[in-house]
Every structure is written in structure tokens, then in C-alpha cells.
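[Meeting: bench + compute handoff]

Bench side (C.D.) handed over the final construct sequence. Compute side (W.E.) agreed to return the predicted structure before the next meeting so the bench team could plan truncations. Sequence as handed over:
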Amino acid sequence: MPSMSISHSVPLNVSIDDAWAKLQSEQTWAGIGPISSVSNPKHSEDGMLEAFEWDANVGGKVYHGTAKTIEATAPTRFVLDMDTSEIVGHVTTVLTETGDTCDVTVSMDLTTKGMLSAMFFPAIKGALNSGFPQQVEDLAATFSLEPGTGS
């Protein structure tokens, strides 16, 4: 089955601990890769994001998926396992301390598992390759927003 990997790094203007805390919000993940919206988050007692459901809108069709945390090494590495009827993969986020702030690297590995996604994979891959760097830049911009202000 066809597969792809992509990665992008961005400097953040927040501490590594603040960035780690932001990764624990399910809304942080909306807009990364195929994820257009998230719902039904599950957190551990200590606040770590354990799982959520997500939707992808591809060509007017909505695909429902699940995400599950498979690795969490605070405050440096967070890995989500993603699954839908058509595509499976991982989103790996690595935070690297740079003095008082940090850098974030988001990597995504996807593999098709359905005939429909295999047929349309060149278009899916093209869209992700062209949009993923901006998605990570947009994600990074949310890290510097003041909590509760939206700005």
C-alpha cells in the first residue's frame, strides 16, 4: 500500500513545559494533516491526552478516525497513533529546548489501507506535502496565544 512521511520544524516563543502542556489539549491537533476537527477527548488523571476522535473532510466526504497516544515522554516527545477506514499512521511531535524557549518538530507517517485511498493517494500526498509546513506554522502560532484570549 502507498505511504508517505513528512516533517517540519518551527521555533516557538514559549518554554518547553508550556509547549508540552499545549500538546495535551485535543484542540491543538485540529488542522494537522488530515484532521479537520476533534471530539471526545480522553485524558489521564494527570492531564495527559490519551485519545480523541477526529474527522477529516476529503472532497466533501467526512471520514471518522481515532487517535491514541502511544508514547509520551514529558516534556520532549509525544506520539499519536491515527486510524481511519482508509488511512493509518503516526504523528510524532518532538520538543527541543533552546534556552528559555523551544523548537517543535512535527512528523507524520501515513499508509493507505483501503482501495479508495490507494487510488487517490497521489492527490492526498500532494495536498499534504503542500499544506503540512503551513499547518505546523499555524500550530506553532497557537502556542504563543495567551490562554483564554484567542489572541
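W.E. noted at the follow-up: Helices lie at 16-23, 115-143. C.D. will use this when planning the next construct.
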